[in-house]
Every structure is written in C-alpha cells, then in structure tokens.
C-alpha cells in the first residue's frame, strides 16, 4: 500500500495549458521540491535552454533518483505525451510512494499556442506550433485513457481563466467526482474530439 507520508505529485497538461500556475500554487502550499527539465536547462544554459537537452536530462534523473533515495515528497511536470513519466511512476511505485496527478487543460490547442507565444514575448522558451497541437490531443487522451489508472488520485483543472485554475473533477482510477459538471462535459467533448484528431495529425 502507498505511503501517505511521501507523495509524488505529477503536474501535467499540454504545453501552454497552465502547468506552471498549478505548480506555483502547489509548491507554495506543500513546500515541495520541483523537478522541471526546462528549469534545469535554464540553470545550465540560461540563454539557450534548447541547446542542452542531454545535460539537462541527465541532471533531471540524477535529482529524481536522489529524491527517491531520500524518500522525499516532490513534484514533477509532464505533458504526458512521452514515456518518461510512466517510468518515473514505476520507480516511485516500487518505493511505496503515493502518486497524485494534477491535470490542467484549456479549451483548444489554439489557446495553448497563444499562451506559449505570450510566454516567449516575456522571455520564456518557445515550443513549435506543430508540437503544441500534437501534444494537446495526445496529452488529453493519455491522461484519460492511461495515466489516471496508474496513479492513486487524480485531479482535473480547467485553466482558461485569468484569475486562477478551477477544479473540474477528482477521483481514483475510473471513479469520477464532478465538481463542475459543465466543465466536465466540456472536457469530455474535447476528449472525443482529440480521439478523432489524433488519427489525422
């Protein structure tokens, strides 16, 4: 059984979906260490973070293994579009961590593109448009079809408002407790649309 004293938080969503907003709230509230590959790359090469993926990746997993060894609660960020997060979940599970997934979404990929463009104007890192679109649909499908079944608890947030993310639903595995039924229905529609889009992009 998972140990409630040590928790892995996964802050997930497509690029531009508001993961950083969720992370700031969670890290402040829980006083957690945060593993973020982009932030590590920024430490290594502040002016060209996309130029050091290998070094940043090595440092990321070095810190990850240290946190696990020390039995520390911590948070990681992911788009869920790749396979690294599944391996991290497996490692944490073997060490008896409780795993909580916080998933943030926007109404469409265009909104995510606009958020990333705004971030770039403010000095943040860029992500190609085609990657944002592909990850938007893939991320939503993987969250709903795969990752909510791999964690102990999940929370779904809509992050399209300026003031704060709002919780839509929470649950464990396929048990759903809808807080905002309108937004849950909106997510369900996006999910169905994503299944259609993923086959043509």
The amount of beta strand, in percent, is: 15-25%
SSE series: EHEHHEHEHHEEEH
In terms of quaternary structure, what is this? single chain
CATH architecture descriptor text: 3-Layer(aba) Sandwich
**Distance between the first and last residues' Cα:** 40 Å
User: Radius of gyration, Cα only, in angstroms?
Assistant: 16 Å
Name the CATH homologous superfamily: P-loop containing nucleotide triphosphate hydrolases
Whole-number total of structural domains:
1
The chain-level structural class is alpha/beta
Count of discrete alpha- or pi-helical segments spanning 4 or more residues? 7
Which geometry do the CA atoms define?
globular
Report on the biggest sheet: 7 strands, mixed
Q: What is the count of β-strands?
A: 7
Your description of this structure?
This protein has helices spanning 19-30, 37-44, 53-69, 84-94, 109-121, 129-145, 181-197; strands spanning 3-12, 33-35, 74-78, 97-105, 153-158, 166-172, 175-178. With 201 residues, the protein is of the alpha/beta class. The chain has a single domain (3-197), classed as P-loop containing nucleotide triphosphate hydrolases (Rossmann fold, 3-Layer(aba) Sandwich).
